[in-house]
Design brief:
The protein is of the alpha/beta class. The chain has seven helices and five strands. A five-stranded mixed beta sheet has the order 1-2-5-3-4, with helices on both faces. The protein is globular.
């Protein structure tokens, strides 16, 4: 994959051979995402935000990639959004996936939770990729802690 073309995307991070995350890409940057071999674009930002593209779904699909939108309200992340994200990511195992939001803040938190809840990573092992982007505010810190507790409570018993 051509990493150089992707480095200019706001807060771009390569997490694995198959997963990269970033803030909102431009149409030209989405073309670079397609050229880099990604099959799917997952967007966690809202469509009505001032930074979003006019028709990201059309742009992504015109480039031959699949588009999945899970709008996560910045001020109110909810468990249903995380559960949908986990379901989507589970279904994309083995595919090159580019996950973005406005600034890679929502995505970094959701990827950390995905790694903890599905891939059994320790919480402290997932945080460097979050902290490379931002220091979660009170809302997101509380959300991450609550989701970790709520979604692992039954896992360790039985």
């Amino acid at each position: 994959m051509d990493e150089d073309a992707l480095q200019g995307i706001y807060n771009y991070r390569r997490l694995t051979d198959l997963v990269a995350t970033a803030g909102q890409p431009s149409e030209e940057e989405l073309a670079a995402v397609a050229r880099a071999g990604f099959d799917v674009v997952v967007n966690l930002a809202l469509h009505d935000a001032e930074y979003s593209l006019p028709d990201e779904r059309r742009t992504v699909e015109s480039l031959g990639m699949r588009y999945i939108h899970i709008p996560v309200v910045w001020e109110r992340p909810i468990r249903a959004d995380l559960e949908r994200f986990i379901e989507v990511m589970d279904g994309l195992t083995g595919k090159p996936v580019f996950v973005h939001c406005a600034a890679n803040k929502r995505v970094s938190a959701f990827m950390a939770l995905y790694r903890q809840l599905r891939q059994r990573w320790a919480a402290d092992a997932t945080m460097p990729d979050v902290l490379a982007i931002w220091e979660p505010d009170a809302v997101w810190q509380q959300f991450m802690e609550q989701m970790t507790q709520a979604m692992t409570s039954g896992r360790n018993h039985g």
